[in-house]
Amino acid sequence: MISVDEAITSRRSVRAFLPDPVSREVVEHILAVASRAPSGTNIQPWRVHVLTGAAKQRLSQAILKAFYEEPEAHSHERLYYMAEWRDPYRARRRKVGWDMYGLLGIARGETAKMRDQHARNYAFFDAPVGMIFTIDDDLQWGSWLDYGMFLENIMLAARGQGLHTCPQAAFAMYHRVVREVLGLPGEQIVLCGLSLGKEDSGATINRLVTERLPVAEFTVFHDD
Description:
The chain has helices spanning 4-10, 24-34, 53-69, 89-103, 111-119, 141-160, 175-182, 215-218; strands spanning 47-51, 129-136, 164-168, 188-197. By secondary structure, the chain is α+β, with helices and mostly antiparallel strands. The longest helix has 20 residues, at 141-160.
């Protein structure tokens, strides 16, 4: 069993997985542990859809069809980042993107290759388990914060089982497709997806290391 610190520092977004199956018992354990996340007045706003096998393949195929055939017809239900990028966030976003493409040998301007790499999201990066997370549309920002803690707990609990994850906002763009395939009620918003499984340690893309700011750059200590 790894320590809490090790679980946190070893967690990263893995984008290539081995096909080794993850048992339902392990998935249920991870979700049970994650459900201890705090939420305002204990309302527990999360709804989880676990996909494996043919069900995962059906969703992937439906989204990939929409991704390649009608990309302009899909958009987020809620603004995910900001209306217009500005620094320092724009610079950080660009850096991680070019670091990833650089590892894969994709040069600036090779938009078709970039697009194909982005499409890997919708195959859950070949992970044996995919998850889709939804939230009721009348819940407000506090519940979305609570949801973030639940998602982080899933990723850390997965590390405790020797597994890796990749949280994926990309699925929210295709909420209409997800809703149709999974039969979601209209009042539920697709928040994100997540891939879960064993890391393919031989995959080049999994050598990506993202940087973090030193504590001094984002913290103010008030002592007096």
